[in-house]
């Protein structure tokens, strides 16, 4: 993913001897001048420090992060954005970025307390999704919401306490979905600034993993956004 579609430039690639031939076509697509180092499996294990790798590692160069305003300003009239507030678990953040890439979300905003999508575990869980989905930091949860509202987004918060089921609401082509940490959920002040919806579940059970919930919600929102764009603006 780093070589084929990433937003980040490649610094170098390290590959074991056994993996060189199977990866020759992909490695051949690397930009000119990117060094590819070939080592034995034993040397790879010694360099990495642990045996959990697939015989190929790459180093990417991180550019300066865009601001939330800059990122949102660059999106078109039809856009779906995820807002992550208080998500400190790298597995969940990686899983959400994987869903964002799979369903075609346009961007992700993170508050200042959410973990780094480019942390190695988050990248691994995202299956490279965090390398291709644009993201930016937006300060506090309230600042994140204000940035979305200022950019003209319909801000929707996902919560088990939401008064309306996800599928019963209408969504425009420019929608932002807010997700909070499992347990505490989204802060009350954030919920007050958004339209709150829920994913219906079986009685006496109201808990979903936040990454799983993001996949369900994104599937519905992306279909709604596509339908809204296909219909176009209503005639006067």
CATH superfamily of the largest domain: SPOUT methyltransferase, trefoil knot domain
CATH class of the largest domain: Alpha Beta
CATH topology of the largest domain: Alpha/beta knot
Query: Number of domains in the coordinates?
Result: 2
In helices, the fraction of residues equals 25-40%
Calculate Rg over CA atoms: 20 Å
Q: How many helices in DSSP terms? A: 10
Average predicted local confidence, pLDDT: 89
Low-confidence stretches: none
Q: What is the molecular shape?
A: elongated
Structural class: alpha/beta
Beta-strand proportion: 15-25%
* Helix/strand order: EHHEHEHEHEHHEHEEEHEH
The CATH architecture assignment of the largest domain turns out to be: 3-Layer(aba) Sandwich
Q: Can you count the beta strands?
A: 10
N- and C-termini, Cα separation: 46 Å
Which strand order do you get reading across the main beta sheet?
6-5-4-9-7-10-8
Task: Characterize the biggest β-sheet.
Answer: 7 strands, parallel
Describe the SSE topology:
Layout: E1 10-16, H1 17-20, H2 24-28, E2 36-39, H3 41-48, E3 56-60, H4 68-73, E4 79-85, H5 90-103, E5 107-110, H6 120-125, H7 129-132, E6 135-137, H8 141-150, E7 154-158, E8 164-165, E9 174-180, H9 188-191, E10 195-198, H10 210-231
Helix pairs in contact: 5-10
Account of the protein in words:
The chain is of the alpha/beta class and 236 residues long. It has 2 domains: 10-60, no CATH class; 68-231, 3-Layer(aba) Sandwich (Alpha/beta knot), CATH 3.40.1280.10. It is built from 10 helices and 10 strands. The chain has helices spanning 17-20, 24-28, 41-48, 68-73, 90-103, 120-125, 129-132, 141-150, 188-191, 210-231; strands at 10-16, 36-39, 56-60, 79-85, 107-110, 135-137, 154-158, 164-165, 174-180, 195-198. The strands form 2 sheets. A 7-stranded parallel beta sheet has the order 6-5-4-9-7-10-8, sandwiched between helices. Strand 4 (79-85), helix 5 (90-103) and strand 5 (107-110) form a beta-alpha-beta unit. Helix 5 (90-103) packs parallel to helix 10. The longest helix has 22 residues, at 210-231. The termini are far apart. The mean pLDDT is 89.
